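Residues determine shape. Next comes a sample protein:
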Amino acid sequence: MNLLYIRILFILLCTGVGYQLGFIFGPEGIGRGIWNLMGAVIGLVSAITIIVLEICSRRVSIRGLSAAVFGLLFGVMMAYLIKLTFLWAPLDEAVKNALTAVLALVFCYLGMVIALRGRDEFSLVIPYVKFTRQDVKEELIILDTSVIIDGRIADIAMTKFVEGKFIIPRFVLKELQQIADSIDTLKRNRGRRGLDILNKIRKSTDIDVRIHEDDFPDIEDVDAKLVKLAKVLNAKVLTNDYNLNKVAELQDVTILNINELANALKPVVLPGEMMEVRLVKEGKEYNQGVAYLDDGTMVVVEGGKPMIGQNINVAVSSVLQTAAGRMIFAKFETESRR
């Protein structure tokens, strides 16, 4: 039902109840109709006031409200416990009542403020209360902007090698939208590609994707927000951002790096093995040639410069694993031409 209809019905009901209360509590006689009218007006004004307060509290999150209620209850409990220590004190009853009121106000205030400040780590709140089997643990995987734009996550998800629920924060969607609206052509194309990948993932019936609405207004950096959200939800972060990887590891957040997965899936070659490559360009050092495998691995061939543009057999001399990927060094000897 539309909210407008609910509000109109609430106003009519409050007005009717006010009219009836005016009829019940108003004095009998000629002026009773005025009391009925006053009750109806009071009911109408009260309903409008409540609706205005409801509209103004639209920005209050359930998480913040739950934290505030918890802090309020904690403050009341602490005030009551301290009040018990005054029961045997030789104080006047009025003094005891005054102290009780002061303690209740102070501890309720402190409890609410402390709970609201730590609401991000507040786990006993409505959005995160879930009734699930104890032997089944739901894996939450947060997607960052770079891995969405990269696009490989869609194909990986289709293979079902990555299991769990994909969480897409609202602030990541906002960043993607800003990139897609950029005046720079390259950035705009990257942003639109990311949005297309998201639509592809969401349309898949085998992938559970959820949009997470919570934000951290006091944190400006998107990477910091991702790490914070991962800690709050006890989730993993899927990325290909090297810097985010290192920052998250320092804060004990589990990272799934697609680049590391791609490097792990590259074929293993050992020194002395023979392989066929096609040299495509000149290397940085003297007389070097450069080739690329199907997976993008760079092969640097010593003595291969004269054979650029040809397919040749080379012998692997060493393999270098770097943060950017894997590099293979090979030699092209005269004997290999025969």
